[in-house]
Amino acid sequence: MGGWAIAVHGGAGVDPNLSPERQEEAKRLLTRCLEIGINALRFKSLSAVDVVEIVVRELESDPLFNSGRGSALTAKGTVEMEASIMDGPKRRCGAVSGVSTVKNPISLARLVMDKSPHSYLAFGGAEEFARQQGVEVVENEYFITEENLEMLKLAKQANAILFDYRIPTAVPSLETCSASAGATPLTDTPLQLMNGLPISVYAPETVGCVVVDSEGRCAGGTSTGGLMNKMSGRIGDSPLIGAGTYACNICSVSCTGEGEAIIRGTLARDVAAVMEYKGLKLQEAVDWVVNNRLDGGQAGMIAVSSEGEVAYGFNSNAMFRGCATEDGFMEVGIWESN
Question: Where is this site: Cleavage (predicted)?
Fold first, then answer.
């Protein structure tokens, strides 16, 4: 075994005009999460799946990224969160969608895996299960920030689904962007499509964590609030095992980006598949999947292997990410060059 390793992400696709202050804030959060994971692996000898849950809970509790508190809002102005977790050794998994009062959706996903006969619960059923298990619940307003209320207002004015639900403050409005195919883009970036429909600037901020512990056990988890101004009931890739999250005896993967493209490409599972069937190493597998399975979509992923390798890849302009390994390597970055 190559020792433990951990990687975290806060979303693929970043506003190129993101302020230096916001960049540093994101790096500090990712660093703090890595340090929590490192401490759990190095000094507490927790299992990979335990570390994944702890780290993702920390990401969900901070409103900076799009998960838990700070989640994107539906067209109705509510929060519908989703998450999944997977324990690699026996490919055990749990997932939830449409939860609106559970403070930490990743922990509810863990309970679905550990305490229910099922792998996936959604909406009312997931909420009922949460109360049966005694998990912490809060009012939906807890998750809603003033910033996101303003972004929802702009999205409705533009009649658009926003991937980048934190539009640069320099942009006065979204009135130049509409859902018609001939719309004028918000910026000089060419109009992008999701399932053939125009969308605005692309920069989702889903969170995720992958871990391999000192015994070579891999685990991963992903959590998100989804898309700003999304239809109520929309489910993305984050809770779907094999798409947004996957873990097995050889690797673990968490994805972020255009959910519909990730779903079509079964992105997370494909990394494990090409390692198993093509004999690729972890970074080679990540690169191959990003380059060959997105069909024009934009996304990114983090991954670890049972041998202690860590890797990431993305075809968007950037990805909030960080990683650390037992041999002392640690890196936190946003742009492709760092």
Answer: 205-206
Residue 237 annotated as binding?
A: yes
Number of Cβ within 10 Å of residue 196's Cβ equals 6
Query: pLDDT > 90: what percent of the chain?
Result: 74
pLDDT at 162: 59
In angstroms, rounded to a whole number, what is the distance separating the alpha carbons of residues 86 and 62? Answer: 22
Residue for token pair 């809603």: 144
CA dihedral 28, 258, 233, 184 (to 10 degrees): 100
The reply to whether 236 sits in an annotated binding site is yes
Least confident of 32-36, 220-224, 226-230: 226-230
Instruction: List the structure tokens of 97.
Output: 């969608």
The answer to whether the CB of 143 falls within 8 A of the CB of 65 is: no
Please list the residues that pair with 11 across neighbouring strands: 320
Return the amino acid letter for 157: Q
Partners of 121 in the beta sheet?
A: 96
Is 21 assigned to a binding site?
no
Residue 128 CA to residue 337 CA, distance in Å, equals 46
Q: What is the rounded distance in angstroms from the CA atom of residue 190 to the CA atom of residue 255?
A: 24
Residue 253 φ/ψ, nearest 5 degrees: -140, 140
Please list the active-site residues. 206
CA angle 261, 196, 189 (to 5 degrees): 85
Q: What is the pTM of this model?
A: 0.89
Is 225 among the annotated ligand-binding positions? no
Dump pLDDT digits (tens) for 49-70: 999 999 999 999 999 999 999 9
